[in-house]
């Protein structure tokens, strides 16, 4: 059974994050207008682990902040889930490896989420 009292509190948390994140980015150097708009699109389904580790180079909108090679909006067309997981673990091409920083379950979550981006 779903707990009906849980839903409003989750909503509240999401609303808090949506409000708190752009303000935090402003404090961290939000003079870049691209980063402000990046928080509009795609913010709702972006995993927290991606926000914490990946948006500095890939952006919340996944369009990439370091040129086309960092655009992940359609990465599921190019790479399988396993290939994405390998890229996250090993890095390469200017991307740092995350094998020591993230748990396997977090890498799996990211790979599953990204491989659905088509
Ligand atoms: C310091 C910048 C940086 C960070 C942080 C970073 N990446 Fe990357 N990422 C890159 C670059 C640069 C490339 C392109 C590599 C290449 O051309 O071989 C890339 C490539 C990728 C690719 C392959 C895209 C393709 O089409 O080949 C995936 C998937 C990816 N990154 C996922 C992630 C995830 C998930 C995270 C967070 C856990 C992350 N990246 C963090 C810089 C970064």
From TrEMBL:
Source organism (scientific name): Paenibacillus sacheonensis
Name of protein: C-type cytochrome
Signal sequence extent: 1-36
SUPFAM superfamilies the record matches: Cytochrome c
Molecular function as annotated in GO: electron transfer activity; heme binding; iron ion binding
UniProt key word Signal: yes
Every Cytochrome c domain range: 41-118
Swiss-Prot/TrEMBL keywords: Electron transport, Heme, Iron, Metal-binding, Signal, Transport
Record carries keyword Metal-binding: yes
Any Pfam family matching the protein: Cytochrome_CBB3
